[in-house]
Amino acid sequence: MAGRYAPRPRRTPAPGGGPGVPAPPLRAVAATAPAPVRSGGPAAPSRRRTWVPPWPLDLGLTLSPLRRGPGDPTFRATPDGAFWRTCRTHEGPGTLRITARGGAVEAEAWGSGADWLLDRLPVLLGEGDDPDAFTPRHRFLAVTRQRRPGLRLVRTGLVLESLIPSILEQKVTTDEAYRAWRLLVRRYGEPAPGAPAELRLSVVPEPRTWALVPSWEWHRAGVDAKRSATVLRAVRVARRLEEAAGMAPEDARRRLELVPGIGPWTSAETVQRSNGAPDAVTTGDYHLPGIVGHALAGDRDADDDRMLELLEPYAGQRHRAARLILLSGRIPPRRAPRMTPGDIAAL
Predict the structure, then answer these.
(1) Which residues contact 231 (CB under 8 A, 6 or more apart)?
(2) What is the helix (H) or strand (E) element at residue 298, kind and residue range?
(3) Which of 57, 102, 107, 311 has the fewest CB neighbours in a 10 Å radius?
């Protein structure tokens, strides 16, 4: 839901060398020092890479869409300023640790997917994104963009890891969806290679493992039959869905929506992360139309049609416009208590 992109405390940005300054060639090298004992194995070897972005980069803002709640077992921000991410790459499970040091981004990865993660580090952090394509037509958006120069649109290149939690977020409160994701990944995922045990990080289950989750475990996690059935249909065609990460965003959305139970809301939430889609505005959201309507026209009761009308001047960059609106803080005041979370596990 829209609240997931609400502003969070700023973290130390990693400014680049400025426009036109090329990044030095990058190489992933084996770590020379033995790795400490971690949850992924007694001596998990790591790979490392240093990258200097040629533009300002705020790791917290860029990576925040990948975080599914404070207890997400696949993502963690630690007090030392590091961001930990786990995923199941095309080459196997992997753990990635990213930090900003001066003008450089330092990354360390573990697992069979380590090389894949390090090779795609610049793409993950917005190398293919083009913020200059966005032309502010409202003064507060121009100010917000100026204040957040390090915002880039993340691109993971992986579909299921964003699709499944998006399915879990359909028609429920954010807290309910985060709880379901946390319980299912911790129970059926595998320990994150190389990650410290105290972080309790896990790698998302394989498609076959998702397909074998018993119906009562979905129930205990608070996931109704409609959403669990949609996940099962998706993992049965996992390979075809993963191909969507290499497609144009609109083609990717059409492929995802071929699966019954996946509609425009879910496909947009997915390709925003997997494809870094700047125009994939989320329709069907409970909060977003009212937030956009309030910010751009003082209309907190705006529906999807009104929201799309207001965002029309930003065609091609509507998702970026929505992100900046959320970061601007122009959120309408709450008029009613929060929705009470349901608990089907007690039924």
Answers:
(1) 164, 167, 168, 210, 223
(2) none
(3) 102
User: Reduced to 3 states, what is the DSSP secondary structure of residue 31?
Assistant: coil
- Cα separation, 125 vs 151, whole angstroms: 9
pLDDT tens profile 206-233 = 999 999 999 999 999 999 999 999 999 9
The DSSP-derived string for 54-68 is SS---HHHHHGGG--
Counts for the chain of helices (H) and strands (E), in that order? 15, 8
Contact, 271 vs 253, CB < 8 A?
yes
Q: What is the pLDDT of residues 115-166, one digit of tens each?
A: 999 999 999 999 999 999 999 999 999 999 999 999 999 999 999 999 999 9
What is the DSSP code (8-state) at residue 205?
P
Please report the DSSP string for 82-128 in residue order: -EEEEEEETTEEEEEEEEEETTEEEEEEESTTHHHHHHTHHHHTTTT
**Residue keyed to tokens 């809301």:** 265
Nearest to 70 by CA among 11, 4, 12: 4
Cα–Cα separations (whole angstroms), residue 161 to 49, 64, 74, 157, 290 = 24, 15, 9, 10, 28
Residue 327 is which amino acid? L
E strand intervals along 175-313? 190-191, 202-203
And the tokens for 296? 């751009």
Taking only Cα atoms into account, the Rg of the chain, rounded to an integer number of angstroms, comes to 20
Q: Tokens standing for 129?
A: 């994104």
**What's the pLDDT score for residue 339?**
61
Whole-number pLDDT of residue 340:
65
Cα(198)–Cα(67) distance, integer angstroms: 18
What tokens does 282 get?
Answer: 């989320």
pLDDT value at position 30? 34
Q: Tell me which residues of the chain have a pLDDT lower than 70.
A: 1-44, 336-347
Place of tokens 């300023």: 81
